[in-house]
């Protein structure tokens, strides 16, 4: 985790230095820093998956629901990172569209869970 903090501070300082000389270089530096941090995050996913598997074994929660939750989490992170990069580059309209796409994707992926919930509530009411 310390490496991510050091790299992020270095990226910010480099981007600030290049922003006055060559603004396009500062954007490339910040995107490269984001990609590095994202790769570090991906390397930690195996720990998360093993913990989720252990929790799924301990509870009676279906693995399909856990997969859906992990997909939703991934979509949320990716859309937030893409939106933030777009905002940093000055494309706020693209950032807004990425956020909307992320929200709609989460909604579509969560529909099976919502349908199951409605089915259970309907079964309880009848």
Spell out the key features of this protein.
single chain; 126 residues; mainly alpha; 91% helix
Brief write-up:
The chain is built from five helices and no strands. By secondary structure, it is mostly helical. The longest helix is centred in the last third of the chain and has 34 residues, at 92-125.
What does it look like?
The chain is 91% helix and 0% strand. With 126 residues, the protein is mainly α. Helix 1 (2-21) packs antiparallel against helix 2 and helix 4 packs antiparallel against helix 5. The longest helix is centred in the C-terminal third of the chain and has 34 residues, at 92-125. The termini are far apart. 6% of the residues are buried.
Secondary-structure element series: HHHHH
Count of alpha and pi helical runs: 5
- Cα shape: elongated
Strand runs, count: 0
Radius of gyration, rounded?
20 Å
List the helices and strands and how they pair.
Blueprint: H1 2-21, H2 23-43, H3 45-58, H4 63-88, H5 92-125
Helix pairs in contact: 1-2, 4-5
